[in-house]
Amino acid sequence: MALSSHYSDTSVRWKIWNPLSPTGPNWSSVQTFNLNLPANANKWNLVSAVTTPDSLVHMVFEQFTTTYQMVWAYYNITSAQWTIGPSLYSCTNQCLYPSLSSDALGNLYAFWMSLSSGVPTYMLYSTRFKGASWSTPSQPFGSGSSITKAVWLSAVRTSSKEVLLTWTLNTTSPYPVYWGSLPLPSAVASGLPLRPWSKLGLSPYEQYFTQNGEYVSPGNGLLTVGQTDISVQGRNGLSLSISRVYSQPFTLVQGGPFNYETSPYANLGSGWQLNLPWVGSTYLHFLSGETFPLVWTSYNVTSNTWTLENHLTEDFVLTKTASGYTLTMKDGTVYSFNASGSLTALVDRTGQNQISFSYSGGNLASITDTVGRVATLKYDSGNHLANVTYGGQIVKYGYSGSNLVTVTDA
Fold first, then answer.
1. Domain boundaries, the chain
2. Which site among 40, 49, 204, 362 is 20 to 30 Å from 155 CA-CA?
């Protein structure tokens, strides 16, 4: 497929090469589709395109209606249809030099420059993992003299879990060329993961350097800490434990966590979270900090259902519908999540025993176990988890700033 756009056009033009045509290999006729590209403008610094293994051609481009937007669209070669996706970013002035790359799993990585007073000033980055939404744009390299006036931006995703970029500064001759490397989490690979011991969290059947509930992975050097605060026996072995897990961010950029998803359940301070599974925009977060990238393995058009089947470290099937997610484990245990990815119910293989979860104001408010006992969670004025009452026990949590510093039973 060859893409182009005329100087005066707002449309994209394309031709498709068909090597299996009955009349012999040939190009199709020129076709057009209106993407609202800026008219009467060169397009070489406004459009970038890649293909993915599912026969889609993806584009990110600057669109102009009443304002400038950085927009994503894709062309389905099988159905011969364009679909215009959401705007990735609203440009205060203009957005130029988009660079889009993809990997073997169909994940997309987009970079572009945002202008201020007509000068390229901010480099922005957004990702879209297959079956998920685009991430909120961020500035991976901050701002400053190495970014301002950056032009000719080019990005490529490598097999070594990083994105490589180059750009030129439009300053004075000789024009400097910069190179940047953006590491990505080990759970997101360009191909299927082959080394489970390098994954985040605690994988079963693996060995760790451990002491007093602290585990260090020999594969990635990251620390994971697990602590149980309250545990009460439930019916048929389906018990409820109030436990916590601490996981280090895999990647830090500009001094802060990068591509790091925060638990939706309760604010326990930096790095800590309740040891409950949840579904983020990029990963399935399982128990003990273990994560799995949302690489959907199949899609049912009739039911609008995505499916992820995994047999690496854990055996499970995760399905996604418009109403939420369902995680079915090898032993028949079923976790149900709402559309936001928060856990609503946990049912054993008999279907007769259930733990249910209730929310208030976005926080986990209570958990009802298999025999009807209720764990109640309370929060302080800073929205940190203050205490949990369950099974006749109370555990209180104390903080210094954004850090959890004390855990006491009462």
1. 2-183, 196-409
2. 40
